[in-house]
Write a structure and sequence with these properties.
Layout: H1 10-23, H2 30-34, H3 36-50, H4 52-63, E1 81-85, E2 88-89, E3 93-94, H5 96-112, E4 115-119, H6 130-140, E5 148-151, H7 157-170, E6 175-180, H8 184-193, E7 199-203, H9 212-216, H10 222-242
Parallel strand pairs: 1-4, 1-6, 4-5, 6-7
Antiparallel strand pairs: 2-3
């Protein structure tokens, strides 16, 4: 019901449907009749754009298997280094994925031990970078200061990983990479291109278990989720073209 009160994309779908229905009528003008396939294709496009099943299947394809079992044991090794890619705006302020990554990294640290390295710009200090903000937040939540480090200065995934690479190469022990599951394929490919041998620890899974019929119905939330998935698809292609990832 809430979807009907929002302007897009359901209104767009209804508009295109009305245009297509009008164009297929026998009494319309020749010009409108010639456009009947255009409007019909527009209806199909708007439907696929807004149907949750479209975005969810693309997200599932990118993320792979769903979240691992919460009971799965991970090796404890105090030599571990957990690299966490920050997420937020440039104020800096963490967004929802940033908080998910912070929480996932904390849970991982409680199992593996070692140290945490938060990575993210735009600045390089503890007050003007997302990495510094995550480190401060971790300290305020009771994590030991000697286990926390951060690097800033990056504005993209590639720049963030470049900033962290000297510390990772100098580290003697297991390395974990924490980021959102949707973002992990691009981040992992970039890390490998930079010579990292890091074990991925994806968090913040976006794929949903949807019933078939409701997931095929248009929804105003569909385009936003599809945009997030396409951002990663396009980003991966751009990174490959620039030689930033495998």
């Amino acid at each position: 019901m809430l979807d009907l009160l929002l302007p897009l994309p359901l209104y767009l779908l209804l508009l295109l449907g009305l245009l297509a229905w009008t164009a297929w009528r026998a009494d319309v003008g020749a010009r409108a009749y010639r456009l009947r396939w255009v409007w019909s294709a527009g209806v199909l496009w708007a439907w696929l754009l807004s149907a949750p099943i479209t975005s969810n299947e693309l997200i599932r394809l990118i993320e792979g298997d769903g979240p691992p079992s919460a009971t799965m044991a991970l090796p404890h090794d105090e030599r571990s280094l957990i690299v966490v890619l920050a997420s937020g705006d440039l104020r800096p302020r963490l967004d929802a994925p940033g908080w998910e990554r912070l929480a996932g990294a904390a849970l991982l640290w409680h199992q593996t031990g070692g140290g945490l390295l938060f990575v993210g710009g735009p600045g390089k200090g503890d007050h003007d970078s997302l990495g510094g903000l995550m480190a401060q937040t971790s300290r305020s939540l009771g994590m030991p200061a000697d286990a926390l480090r951060f690097v800033g200065g990056g504005r993209t995934t590639y720049e963030d990983l470049v900033q962290a690479t000297p510390l990772v190469r100098a580290h003697n022990g297991p390395v974990w990479l924490v980021t959102s599951a949707l973002h992990m394929p691009r981040a992992q490919a970039t890390a490998r291109r930079l010579g990292w041998n890091a074990r991925p620890h994806p968090v913040d899974y976006q794929q949903l278990d949807l019933a078939l019929l409701p997931s095929c119905l248009p929804s105003n939330g569909g385009p936003a989720r599809l945009a997030e998935a396409l951002h990663e698809v396009i980003g991966r292609g751009v990174y490959r073209l620039r030689g930033w990832s495998h």
